[in-house]
Structures are given as C-alpha cells and as structure tokens.
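Dear V.,

Thank you for sending over the compound details. I've combined the ligand you provided, copper (II) ion, with the protein sequence from our construct and run the structure prediction for the complex. I'm sharing the raw inputs here so there's no ambiguity about protonation or stereochemistry in the SMILES, which I know was a concern on your side last time.
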Amino acid sequence: MNRVILSVAVIAAMSLTSCKNEAKKETEATATEVSKELAMTELSFGVRGNCGMCKKTIEKAANSVDGVASANWDVDKKKIDVTFNDTKTDAMAIHKAIAASGYDTEKATGDLEAYENLPDCCKYDHEMMMNQSGEVKADVH
Ligand SMILES: [Cu+2]
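Below is the predicted structure of the protein with copper (II) ion bound, written out as structure tokens.
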C-alpha cells in the first residue's frame, strides 16, 4: 500500500517538474503494478502441527508451490496465512503440498509416510483442533 501512495506522490512530483508525456508514462506503469497486486489472493486455513520445526516444514512446503508469495503458520492457532498469485496456483495445490510434507490441513490429510519421518516432537495429534483462537497456549513439549 505504501508503494502505491509513493507512486502517487511520484506522479504528483513528475507532473509538476516534467512535460505531459513523461507523466503519462509513469501513470501507465503504476496501473500495471496495481493490477499485479490485485492478482494476489490471501487465504487462511487450519494446519495441524506442534512447534517451530513444524512451522519451518509447513511454510517450506507452502512456499515450494509456484505462485505462493508468502506463508506464515501460527503455532498457537494451528493456522496458516498464505498469499498467492491465483493465476499461477490455487488453494488446493497449497493444501496438497502441505499434506505431502506430513501435515494435516482442513482439506487434505497429511501423508502418513512423511508424518512417520517427522522428528518425534513434531508427531502432532491427528485429533488436534485447527483454526484455534490462539488464546489457549499450545502445550510446550
Ligand atoms: Cu514440530
């Protein structure tokens, strides 16, 4: 958002200091940038896991999907926030990538073999609530 405000400020400065043609070019470049940002979809969904190591594995799996721009898993809430380019990928691809790394999501069951290969501390409870409020601290192991 700051970048957009900055661009507007730049355009304002340009129109004061330069000829009309240059100012017009700058406006077109800004329009392209805004439409790129609009293609980004923000999504949150539940993912089971225990600890900081789980966080690394889950986020790495999500980020491995082409088109994912950011992934942040919350250990207390058992929930991930992802930002992705919806012209390159979709929600289900991200669910599946996380499940392949051994973790359950709301829509995909974690791969059992990958789960078995997780460190012991990461072998989360398959009955664990997802999408928690985060008010109750998760058990420290
Ligand atoms: Cu863990």
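A first observation: The chain has two domains: 2-38, 41-122.

Warm regards,
I. M.
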